[in-house]
């Protein structure tokens, strides 16, 4: 979900502009002022997953009325139609998809339930991120370093890639927020094994999100896992479609656990990241960011998002945390819209910062 806590130094970095390669299958051009993909998370299938990669399946809360849950499908339709959103990230626990059988087949019922959400997302015309919400772990142990083998994780991704190989707009979110990974070289080997498996399973062009350690912090990527993740390649040696996955919250300890925001994260995180991405001709997607429905978050989150728009050559877009099955009354980072009659009403923060604004760049 969202708990990262890092120590940061406030360093500004100067930018330089280098033309970035494009992903050929995307309709919208990326130019200064036009982010390719904007949207939110539709959470619920991940509920019960802890930062130790333990997932209590009794707490899974599908955001699907067909399964007795909230109307996540209606939420996505609203976000797409009324807010111009075109990407939804759909977190899910590994244990849920294989019904707790590590290395086993996708569970027909559970993977079928999750697929309902994926198909409803695709039906809005949006991109849809399959996000394995396990923090690099299965029941407390790290993949490829004492926990599940790379082969067991590859088995999961091979099956998912086979299932969605024919679907251009599915994005493979390899892993949510790895943290406290002792051996980054080994972690990068794990990520490489998954990328190779996804491509070999027939998903040759879809976007794959590359997760670093440090809770995929946008601040840490360029100096932490990023330099090693640069070496992750497609089987043809290219890096087409391989996009860095970054998260960033704006509260006092950057953990996303407080309703108030204190920073726009630009000088010490996103500006240096933009510079680093440009120098390596690569891109990132911010798959979690957000804040409370407060004036401080409106101020800082809007600034951060404006910075993404101004650097749309390296930032593909964002998915805010979070809509879906959260209770908007009690969850301080809720981006859940509420239905009034036939109309959906967004939170003030979503309206102010996250919806697509008319392009000013022509
Ligand atoms: C995009 O445009 C804004 C406003 O004109 C400018 O401040 C910013 O530096 C530009 N970004 C890039 C990467 O050129
Ligand atoms: C959010 O904050 C605004 C005031 O800034 C308030 O009017 C609104 O009711 C709050 N809640 C939601 C869900 O938007």
From TrEMBL:
Q: Which GO terms describe its molecular function?
A: cellulase activity
Record-level GO BP terms: cellulose catabolic process
Q: Which residues form the signal peptide?
A: 1-19
What keywords sit in the KW lines?
Answer: Carbohydrate metabolism, Cellulose degradation, Glycosidase, Hydrolase, Polysaccharide degradation, Pyrrolidone carboxylic acid, Signal
Q: What is its EC number?
A: 3.2.1.4
What is the protein's known function?
Answer: Endoglucanase (EG) that cleaves the internal beta-1,4-glucosidic bonds in cellulose. The degradation of cellulose involves an interplay between different cellulolytic enzymes. Hydrolysis starts with EGs, which cut internal glycosidic linkages to reduce the polymerization degree of the substrate and creates new chain ends for exocellobiohydrolases (CBHs). The CBH release the disaccharide cellobiose from the non-reducing end of the cellulose polymer chain. Finally, beta-1,4-glucosidases hydrolyze the cellobiose and other short cello-oligosaccharides into glucose units.
**Family assignment from sequence similarity:** Belongs to the glycosyl hydrolase 5 (cellulase A) family.
Q: What is this protein called?
A: Endoglucanase EG-II
